[in-house]
Design brief:
The protein has helices spanning 10-15, 44-59, 68-91, 111-129, 134-137, 150-155; strands at 95-99, 105-109. With 156 residues, it is mainly alpha-helical. It is elongated and about 70 Å long. The two termini are 39 Å apart.
């Protein structure tokens, strides 16, 4: 059972004018902008996605070294999705036929189809966590002054 909505970052609450009027947490951790170190054991698909996503997020000043885990999870989900899609392309079908004892032909989904869908859902979920989906980008505000960080910059 879920705990409800995910909490909003304090910086986002400030930018929205603190709609709940609750006390703001001014002591949230602040991290310098920068790309985390890429693991050397990633396969070619995860590695390429790491490079692509890191570049996009660094350009928007949205990536820190603290984002290693979520970036890694995103890239691994992408790799899983990509590898399963390649397997399905080799089969030229996402299903196959099983003949039961009575001779009935029963269509079955290939396991790769289900694994690809699970990986796709994970990938999109991780992208949303990092503010990289169309909807989640509307909730992200880039703060223009890089000399001060986080909420302290917003509160002065």
């Amino acid at each position: 059972m879920g705990r409800g909505r995910k909490p909003k970052p304090t910086a986002l609450k400030v930018l929205q004018g603190n709609p709940g009027k609750r006390k703001l947490n001014t002591d949230e951790p602040e991290y310098a902008i920068g790309a985390p170190d890429k693991p050397d054991w990633l396969d070619q698909y995860a590695s390429a996605e790491w490079d692509r996503l890191s570049a996009v997020m660094l350009e928007g000043r949205l990536l820190t070294k603290a984002d290693w885990g979520i970036l890694l999870s995103t890239c691994l989900a992408y790799s899983q999705m990509h590898r399963n899609e390649l397997a399905l392309q080799r089969y030229k079908s996402d299903s196959y036929i099983v003949v039961d004892q009575l001779g009935n032909r029963i269509p079955k989904s290939r396991p790769e189809t289900i694994r690809k869908e699970v990986a796709r859902r994970q990938y999109v979920s991780f992208l949303a966590e990092m503010g990289q989906t169309t909807v989640s980008k509307t909730k992200v505000k880039r703060i223009p002054n890089p000399t001060m960080a986080g909420v302290k910059r917003l509160l002065g």
